Amino acid sequence: MRKLIAFAAPLAAATLMLLTPGCRSRQTIQVETIEEETPSLASMVHVADPRASVQLLKGFHDVEQNAWRWTMGRFSVTLRPPAGAAEKGAYLYVKLVVPEPVIQRTKAMRLDANVEGAAIEGETYTKPGEFVFRKEVPAQALKAGAVTAVFALDQFLAAGSVEERELGIIVSSIGLEAK
Length: 179
Known about the structure:
Layout: H1 2-19, E1 44-46, E2 56-64, E3 68-79, H2 85-88, E4 90-98, H3 100-106, E5 109-115, E6 118-125, E7 129-137, E8 147-153, E9 170-178
Antiparallel strand pairs: 1-9, 2-3, 3-8, 3-9, 4-7, 4-9, 5-6, 5-8
């Protein structure tokens, strides 16, 4: 009998544990989806602003002196057209510097642009200094929610001629202004 009690006691305890729900807690785990806000495109880009770097598509070197960037011979940016631009057009704006070492070697340089394939009147620079490139963009080029502006310099310093980088002009801001 003793053997039976010794065997039955653990068996009864195990059965009780299996049949009783016990103190198991049921936790409901909620999964919350957090959507990161996609940065909205700006009409005017200050090239030193880290938030604007996503709009600088190609042809820009790293930020220097927390204020500006060198460009290469070709560079491009994506921009949000300002309100009303699809009906009235806008101005393509670039605040730039033609550096003395570049103009000494090239003697003259022409900056041409296009916005969504529409050719924009270019400008020629023959002296070093600060300039504003401000040219009209037709409304038909600004119909999309975001547009790409592509710039090309006819003269620039090839990589290795002064330093290892290709050097064009210095840009501090670039964008589209409402008419």
